[in-house]
Amino acid sequence: MRTRISKQFRWEMGHRLAHHAGLCKNIHGHSYEAHVILAGEPDDQGMVMDYFDMKTLVQPLIDELDHCFLCDRSDDVMVDFFTDHPMKVVYIDVPTTAENIAHMLADAIWARLGEHTAIDELTVRVYETEKTYAEVTNKRR
Ligand SMILES: [Zn+2]
Questions:
Q1: Ligand 1 center to residue 32 CA distance, Å?
Q2: What is the 3-state secondary structure (H, E, C) of 39-77?
Q3: CATH architecture of the domain formed by 3-139
Q4: What is the distance in A from the centroid of ligand 1 to the CA of 22?
């Protein structure tokens, strides 16, 4: 029977939305949480995917983001700052919204699923606060 499994990941990260009219243009951070949800037919061991394997697959992506500043490459002020003051920065080509972070993680996890062909659907839900999340779903065609 097709089944969904989920694992949660947490990390701390700074960001800003440079072109936002409100408070989000200021440098700030969040305690992010991602729920990674996989769906498919369980194998003969009764597992969609071993949770340990899920952690092995996802945690390196989270570690890359943990305690970094996620920087929109079009944010000249921050790019100049980090050029002068090297720190842990991850650059992306889009605004650093929860929506784009969910897309980024979903694409990276999807690309790593490789031999796990029984998994036909991946959902990544990124919580920026306890009350707000963005969710992206990738499906195998
Ligand atoms: Zn924010």
A1: 10
A2: EECCCCCCCCCCHHHHHHHHHHHHHHHCCEEEEECCCHH
A3: 2-Layer Sandwich (3.30)
A4: 11
